[in-house]
What does this fold into?
Amino acid sequence: MATVRRRGDKWQVQVRRQGFAGLTRSFAMMRDAERWGVLKEREFDLLESQGLIGKKVCDLTLAAILARYRETLVPQKRGGDREAYMIKAMERATFAAAMADRVTTADLKAYRDTRLRTVSPATVVRELGLLQHAYEIARKDWGYEGLGNPVKDVSKPKLPPGRARRLSDGEEGLLIHWGRLSRNPLLLPIMGFALETGMRLGEIVAADWKHYDARERVLLVPLTKNGKPRTVPLTLMAASIIEGRRGSDVGQIFPSTVEAIKQAWIRLTRRAGIDDLHFHDLRHEAVSRLFERGLDMPEVMMVSGHTDHRMLLRYTHLSARKLVEKMDRSERCA
It folds into this structure.
């Protein structure tokens, strides 16, 4: 039963029912406390009718669940900074102040539609995925067994097809020219290394001298996007770029940060007059060139670090001109 009593300048209501965790909340006005008590009694009635006796009703706001998720789970994840940023965005939403068991699918659909006006579909998909996981963690690990998951019935935005951007004639020369003039002396060697190896920017700036084997001409990448280390075989040009970085031979081979290189890249492409070219497109270009050199799927996967050939297919935007040249060579040899 719900019990309402005066506690200082507040009205405190307690709801207790055998088989359920007790609930307590304080209100400024007595009628609000009584109304809340009645609502919680009805919730207990509903749970009992569904055979959910003993399932703990959630007494946290969604903002509180997100805060706990950020404090306990995010630090353990790669890409935790991005997730912390996503949580900060969701905490500003109006539904975050509601009790977690009061957030509806309609609330989340409205949030999805509003966010799509300012951010990409991929960002919204990631945010909804994080929110769904937070609900599941609260239900499975934090003891709120009776908590439903309103995110499950929210349809995710359709993602655009993967980018197919490759360097067109003359663009590589422009990148090299303006790379030499960049205020960031590491931009040019990092660009060249990305085109030779297909490595991600984060992997390149994290590359350490202790992971480079000059004799075997390989570079160990101990921490990758999929969590599995890989050893990247280096072309002569890639090895030459590393050798050109010889100095202290301790720590980072390319001592910079992802953000610093991205900012330098934006300035470079703007000065070069190159439109719609992301740094990550160099990975697309590099992987496609590996196929054009004649490497087969397993060999390319070893270099690029892909574990699923279906994911790799969207990177292999082969040049029709290159294929014509390859077919011509095979005909001449026949």
